[in-house]
Amino acid sequence: MQDVKIHVQEANFDVGDEYRYLADDAKFGAVVTFTGLVRELQSGNLTAMTLEHYPAMTEKALTAIVSEAQERWPLGRVTVIHRVGRLTLNEQIVFVGVASAHRNAAFAAAEFIMDFLKTRAPFWKKEHTNDGEYWVAAKTTDDQAAARWQLQAKKD
Amino acid sequence: MQDVKIHVQEANFDVGDEYRYLADDAKFGAVVTFTGLVRELQSGNLTAMTLEHYPAMTEKALTAIVSEAQERWPLGRVTVIHRVGRLTLNEQIVFVGVASAHRNAAFAAAEFIMDFLKTRAPFWKKEHTNDGEYWVAAKTTDDQAAARWQLQAKKD
Amino acid sequence: MIKVLFFAVLRERLGTSEVVVQDFHGSTVADLIQHLQQRSPKWQQELASQDVLAAVNQQLVSHAHVVEAGSEVAFFPPVTGG
Amino acid sequence: MIKVLFFAVLRERLGTSEVVVQDFHGSTVADLIQHLQQRSPKWQQELASQDVLAAVNQQLVSHAHVVEAGSEVAFFPPVTGG
User: Tell me, what is one Gene Ontology molecular-function annotation carried by this entry (chains A, B) (predicted)?
Assistant: First the structure.
């Protein structure tokens, strides 16, 4: 897919650099970015987290999600970066960036990609705390967030 | 308002710097940014644009919009930057950035702020083209985008 | 006394960014518009549109809003920022 | 021959990330799960949940999906990336 950049990597990323790439295509006046970071647990004793993934499938799954977004909305450049491996507190985990001529399309597509990444892309988080290691449980709110797109006509 | 940064300025801004400020508050794991840029007209002869505003009202209007977003969603830091004066092709015009513990709140609040900025904040664009100068006409799609928030219960 | 400001295309077409109204005896924004329209056929025409937005003391209001003496009233076309 | 992969908590609980199934005569993903469950009570239990997701040749599929010989089948818990 032209203008689609999908990276699954251990290395960190720079949001300013990613924004510049998205904004550099002079046809599209709206750029939306989402960045997710490792934050403290409610219990307050997170030390790190490990991101496992299914390497052969990950990029395929992300590419399919981006293709679906491109079918729904007129998009310019799209970037998805997801880190794997060990991440400590306040590190960046995921970046989704979308350029479009229409701001509502850019917002909708970025949120759509995140909602489906959360429910369809093969990543699993394990939290390391002072009390031990725990696999993160999937959230039903994530399923609900993804499900609402099925109900929407492709009208945007 | 604590953690709200509203700037109306002629100077450019750096999306990487603005992102870093939003992400720096370690309580909020989701950061959404929107950036709007000056793009070519369909007719292809834009040379520049001038942004006029109503100085005494502009920050008040933006502050009111951000307050309304804060009432609807649990937000961390919020930044709104709008440039005024003369801007040439591919320059940045507007930045909205929102941090939240919940990604859907961050997306919704950023889009809400943009939709109301487009319909309630006193800015006017004049386009300078090879054929002359034209004031930009307001779009009914912007009114519709703002109106849909009235219909939504504060359930997000 | 009421300070009246104009912005954007309205400012350009009326040829002024600010007038001071001393003799306003009406009550609402709509009354103030009618008062200003008496200045000339051009003012009559430019302020006739329902699309003219009004702000009183820097807050967007409807044309039914009451204007107190000492207010700053601004008239402008639909906004186009962002 | 079918290559079967396990990820995350399922990988840890089964103590293996990959098995090769030679003698599978069923048809669907659900059949393959049943076949694997015969290995031991632990496998019986860990693969019993309706929440176990399946991918065939790196595509998410339902448990009714038909598994061709030579496929790569992966089982894993609901995903938690992002």
Answer: molybdopterin synthase activity
